Amino acid sequence: MNSLIVVERVFMSFRRKKGPKVSVEQIETLLQDSTVLEFAGSGDPHEEYGKVRLLLENLKACPPDVLLFDGDFLAEPAYLKTSQDIEAIAEKSVEKLTSLLELLVDSPSPSLCVAGNYEILGSTYDAIEAISSDRLLDIGCDKTSEPRIDQIHEDSVFMDLYTERTTWSGGVYEIGGFALLGVEGSNPINSTFPGERSEENLKWAFPETTSKASVGSQNHIIATHGPPFGYRDRLGKFGVPPHLWGAQKGSVALRNYVDSQKPFMTVVGHIHEAFGVHVRSTDKQTGETKETVIDKDFGNRTKIIIGYDKNKADVSITLNKGTLEYWNWSRVRIAEEDSYRLVDIEGEWLDKKGRKKPFKKCSQIIDLNDAVTYLLS
Predict the structure, then answer these.
(1) Which residues, 6 or more positions from 201, have their beta carbon under 8 angstroms from its beta carbon?
(2) Does some domain include residue 98?
(3) pLDDT value at position 7?
(4) What is the residue range of 88's domain?
(5) Is residue 12 a part of any domain in this protein?
(6) What is the average per-residue pLDDT within 325-333?
(7) What is the mean pLDDT of the chain?
(8) Which one of 126, 127, 278, 322 has the fewest CB atoms closer than 10 angstroms to its CB?
(9) Element (H or E) spanning 59, and its range?
(10) Among residues 156, 143, 162, 257, which one has the least CA distance to residue 204?
(11) Are 113 and 69 in contact (CB under 8 A)?
(12) Domain assignment present for 9
């Protein structure tokens, strides 16, 4: 770790205060030497081609290992029309999806896609198969797996929407010792969107998908459209009826799975106002659980540092990575040294000039087990 050595007086200065005071320069030096995985992500473009192009332009200055692009690609929920049958709707959806997702072929990093509640289940897979590029992969749907029929509601309640839906488990993309696992769609918000799945179906889909990984849960990154219940899932006020202001709309099935299996990270979108980070850590010796929520101004040039010892704590992070509707996105870098892990999460707004601005300070540091101190000493 010679390249990571810093002057001892730096630590003496921040030890005398309430928490570690670490410079961005120190963090950047460590990340340059010890990063094992870097990914960027956003979602909910709703057919705004210009914002997708701008995101790709922003990535050129510092391309990550992969781009995670999460759901609601379409501007309307699968172009549902009462006069059309489901086959015609699906055909139109695939056409629109193909047009938008072709932009990602020019991404400076390979793109992993997970469909949202606006897309008919399986249609994003079909569009990406039609594009046929090794730079583009749908990890939210694995049509080579055994399908399962889902009954979303008893009667057709919205624009002649079909009530029985064919669903599939998701796929896996392994890189740098981590497994990125996708499950398309979301839990029901009002049982009217084509990509909604019942909680019972999601209860099956998450473990079925993660069983395909070759690494343990400490290295699982689950990518799905809807958040776990209670984690980055609270609605705002814009465009929402007053009785739903502040309502939590996450998936109970996903929450139960995250709490029991403790994947390293769950990356979501869907609830546009909930851009931010939730950290749940469990002390392996005492069983004590702590939770930290970071959402104040997240995305407005925010840099969050989380450090912990994997031998001493199970840490599960939920990241609502942002939406192109609000012009925001996020970048995650993971550095490791022995059993210590440092997670650097940057929330950003799209820069219209396509440049990467340097961060000047850490907005918040969560130092579990003196991990940050260890890694920087």
Answers:
(1) 148, 150, 167
(2) yes
(3) 33
(4) 35-375
(5) no
(6) 93
(7) 88
(8) 126
(9) helix 49-59
(10) 257
(11) yes
(12) no
